[in-house]
Amino acid sequence: MPTFTPLGTASAVPAHGRHLSAALLTHRGRHVLFDCGEGTQYRLRTADISTSRIDVIAITHLHGDHCYGLPGLLSSMAMHQRTHPLVCIGPPELATWLRATPGASPDDLPFACMLRITSPPPASTTVWRSPDAWIEARALEHRVPVMGYRWATRTRAGQLDAERARTLGVTHPPDFGRLKAGRAVTLDDGTHVRPEQVLGPPRPGVSCSYVTDTRPCAGSRALASRADLVYHDATFADDHAARAHETGHSTASQAAQTAREAGAKHLLLGHLSARYENWTSLEAEARRIHPNTDGAVEMQSYRVGAR
Ligand SMILES: [Zn+2]
Ligand SMILES: [Zn+2]
What we know:
By secondary structure, this protein is of the alpha/beta class. The protein folds into two domains: about 5-155 and about 205-305, Metallo-beta-lactamase, Chain A (4-Layer Sandwich); about 160-200, no CATH class. The chain is about 25% helix and about 25% strand. The strands form three sheets. Strands 6-5-4-3-2-1-16 form a seven-stranded mixed sheet. Strands 7-8-9-12-13-14-15 form a seven-stranded mixed sheet. Helix 8 packs across helix 10 and helix 10 packs parallel to helix 11 (about 280-285). Bound molecules: zinc ion (ZN) (2 copies). One zinc ion binds near residues 21, 63, 65, 66 and 271.
């Protein structure tokens, strides 16, 4: 089961023990890092995460609280003699900034650091894919160009009913593998066994969206659409809705409204303003709209698809 672990949930400045924006999506022992605020490498160390197992870093925008940890993390990866390639996704300003930073420029690093630079796309754009998962990006609405991300896994074949396969005469171990992979097999006596005879229903993929910093917008709704877990900008409570709009952020209620309209299953509120000591009042406001909502707790691993 994939997990999502917020490493930093603070907005703008560290406050009340909260750290700057970063979150880790973990699937089959590999990681995607969303944002990399200052100090993220310390947070990864506290979470006992090996940085060599990070395959992708996806930066939402070039406000310092979301990216100032990146040069430090990249140079530490170099010092740890990383050889595994790394994909860094972000808006165009990311490339300019990294190339101007001694020690963090992709040309200075001893491993392949592949920049996937894209202007925040208004429509869904796939920015990374692996054999079993992919990441799509969409433009959000903030004071500077910003992208939200949605990580998703593919639908998998149903579970193999090995007992049923044996009853149909399957005995060779490789035939079980073929059936599991959705291929038909021919037995020694010429009988055909089709995968649909021995496989359960297809298992749908799961998805996790990282949506910050943003006002409510078409991009945030699309990224949250039917997602299993959505981490959403919830910088302010209702009484600061005007301030949220002015600064390009969302209130907890607006995050909940987006999640409800999008049919998202579990909402995690994130990017909390330093004016609040904790999530209590914002959670209460959001749960009136989307009951399955929690204020994100740093270092807590949330299952993607468990609820
Ligand atoms: Zn921010
Ligand atoms: Zn920002």
